[in-house]
Amino acid sequence: MSIVRFEILSRVIELGSFTKAAEKLNMTQSAVSHAISSLETEWGVPLLIRDRRKGITLTEIGQKTLPHIREVLKRMETINQEIALATNLETGIIRIGTFASASSCLLPKLLAKFQKKHPKIEFKFYEGTYEEITEWLQSGIIDIGFVVKGKSNPSFDLVPLIKDKMVVAFHPEHKFLHKETINMHDLEKEHFIMPTGMYQSHVEELFEKAQIKPTIRFEVHDCTTIANMVQEGLGVTVGPELFLKTQQNIKIRKLNLTNYRDVALACSAISEASPAVREFLMVAKNVFIEPNNTIDSQIPFN
């Protein structure tokens, strides 16, 4: 049995293609195909279903064995990092799952701090929804994931980062521009763009607290699309400050009611994580040292 074949199988499934896996691993496509076939022959079971229309999918036994294969690969990565640490030669890779606003507003700060101390550690990033990040953590595709507390598997180890406040966003020529704080009741008759994606529950909680129902004009899943619609004056919205403050040609204001999403880094088990992952989480703790850290709560009044 070969660890190399485990790596090849994992890459084929991850990329959904023998060709892409071969390019990534610097191998020929025939070598990749032979490695998978030899593993199937050794085990006496088919692991992949090859279909020209549907692409590559796992068989039932393939689905059952893949998590264990990924765990073996993760353990080997940990062993290599421990050896490198003992010989003062840093090596390793950290796989991080992240959502859009964390990628643009939190991740760069962490990476800059970490790579000053550990320039030889490599990173691989996967961007998705809360649910996808949770699934990637559970299946071992990623080592660490940006999550929102209460939206993730409670068995994960969490490192709290920030409390991301919900704010209202509107067109620069909207009447809200001259107000410092927006009352939830002021939103009742506004054309409202309701998010149907990751932070919808936080927005709905605010309206429930205010005991009002918004006049929903549009229901939109994609965060960037929502911001673009606000830019065009199609309505107002409520969402996380971390994301909305980065969008051009819109204005944001605080609400009279508060609601936060608690952003954290999640790991299946810190005690079993590789040295590089443990060090990254330690750096995150130091960067976001305040237990109730929030992003800039002073929203410009202009």
Folded structure, characterized:
The protein is an alpha/beta fold and 302 residues long. It is built from eleven helices and twelve strands. The strands form three sheets. Strands 3, 4, 5, 6, 7, 10, 11 and 12 form an eight-stranded mixed beta sheet that branches. A hairpin with a 3-residue loop joins strand 1 and strand 2. Helix 1 (3-15) crosses helix 2 (18-25), helix 2 (18-25) packs across helix 3 (29-43) and helix 6 packs across helix 11 (275-287). The chain is elongated and about 70 Å long. One of its GO terms (cellular component) is cytosol. InterPro entries: HTH-type_LysR_regulators, LysR_HTH_N, LysR_subst-bd, WH-like_DNA-bd_sf, WH_DNA-bd_sf. One of its GO terms (molecular function) is DNA binding.
